[in-house]
Sequence to fold (360 residues):
Amino acid sequence: MKQNAKILLADDDALVREAVVKILDMFGHEVLAVADGREALDAADDSFDIIILDINMPDMDGFEVMERLNQRKLGVPVLFLTGAGSMEYVVRAINLGAYDFISKPIEDLDMFNVKIRRALEKRMYVLQEKAYKDNLEREVRAKTRELEEKNQLLEEYSEKLEATAVNTIVTLQVAMEEKDQYTAGHSTRVTEYSRMIGEKMGLGREELGVLDRACRLHDIGKLVIDLSCIQKAGPLNDEEWALIKKHPEVGYNILKPLDFLEREGMIVRHHHERLDGKGYPDGIGGGEIDLLTRIIIAADSYDAMTSRRSYRVNMSMEEGIAELERCVGSQFDPEVVKAFRTVLLERRDRQQQRAEFRDF
Ligand SMILES: [Fe+2]
Fold:
């Protein structure tokens, strides 16, 4: 433990000052002696181990100095120099948190030395505690940062895993669609239309993400259904329809084990439902169909109408929009159709402008 203290001494009496400095010096301590309270306040900082204050000083007495020191929370023990018989002073000093008292004149050097030593021990204890706290805070901060970094890594890792899982399934679905000239590009177009509608309707980033994944995966159920029937020329018979109608539920079951695709799975399940409840597989309607599902229902139907099929010619954009509008309320959501119509027309205008520019 530290043997020698750095001490700040304030006393207006030059003789006392000199005497105390001499004694402290003899015990090996380093002393800064000042003549009044104000100087003491100016000099005081936490580089000192002990502060010794005379009580009666002109201008600012020892009590006031201590009050102000207390506000600075230096953690430096304060000892008061007191004349004999001033009990009232002692009580006041104790209330202010004085550590000890030294009576003037100093006659018992050993006792004085003991008091200084005890004050120094107290100071060392305060410093140790502070170092421990600082250290602890630093360690806690470092550990918190480390944890945050690890969490971030984990999050990135799981996002990557999730994206890989989605991409794998999408690859399978695209491969399936590409095998048939009539379905090629269907999911990509539905995804694109849905994104355009979603953005027009002001959906947030997360909602758009769910919508994007749901669209890319929406026909995944067709993967496990024998597709030869949809590839045949001519309309489907009842049996074939019954088979095809299974694909939303089959898709839902494929995605079910993937917890992070819970919402997407429900959208896949319901992408052939209708507002009037006449859709499949669950026949839900109205408020049971959420906005994202309403968007994909419209986008999916529109792409089916405007894409070529083996058994019929496809509709034009204008015819497709008219059909969507005709079925507002029964199949489609009015707000979704409104937004869809706007983005389709905007896209057509942009394409026309580009074409004119090219021709020019
Ligand atoms: Fe479908």
